[in-house]
Amino acid sequence: MGAEALSGASQPRRTGGGSGRSGSGRTKSGKPRPGTGGQGRRKLEGKGPTPPAAMRPGHPAQRRAAASASGGSRTRRQGDGPAPPPASSGSSARAPRGAGDAAEFVAGRNAVVESLRAGVPSAVLYVGARVQHDERVSESLKLAADRGVVVLEAGAAELDRLTGGALHQGLALRVRPYDYAHPDDLLARAADAAQLPLIAALDGVTDPRNLGAVVRSAAAFGAHGVVVPARRGAGVTAGAWKASAGALARVPVARAVNLARALQSYQDAGVFVAGLDAAGDTEIRDLDLATAPLVLVIGSEGRGLSRIVAQACDVLVRIPMAARTESLNAGVAAGIALYEVATVRSRPR
Question: Cys staple from 205: which of 236, 268, 326, 330, with CB 3.0 to 4.6 Å?
Answer without folding.
Answer: 330
